[in-house]
Amino acid sequence: ADGMTGERLTPPRFAAILACIAVAACSTPHPPAPDHSAERAADAAYFAADFNCTRATAGDIDLKLLNASSDRYLEKCIRLEVFTDGTSLYVDAKGMKPVKASSVGLYWQDDALARRLKLGPSFVVITGRLRDCAKHNAMTARAAALESAPGAVPAQPAIIGACKTSATAIFVSDAQVIPTAMD
User: What's the DSSP call for residue 7?
Assistant: First the structure.
């Protein structure tokens, strides 16, 4: 005997060593979950601006100007007098068929008014924010991804209203129907 008999690796001792290793592995600190509060705050501020335009903060433009240079008005509050069926904008009633006067979509804060306009198109003064739909849809997707559990497939973002089919949309926060002789 060489005096090392007490140091043999017996099955119980081996199990104890494995248990210590397992405990040590479990107690190592994990990196903290990433803090997305800044992104969430930026998303909230962006979406809060969807319907925060007022007549006092909006700049008056006409539909022809909007059609000619809509890039100048992106992310700005605008007010315009148009003929609308709740879905599309027209310069006047004559222009309704067959060609619509604008490719800008409409997303209404007040769904009831949009439904009413579909029943009988009217001249309306609308106030709203002109938004870039690609940006709005990307922000919507980012917000959905941030709300998904880590490692989960991100929730399908809810692409809303006119941004499903339009490049730009006016997020209408206020609309005043102009009475006509037919009303």
Answer: G
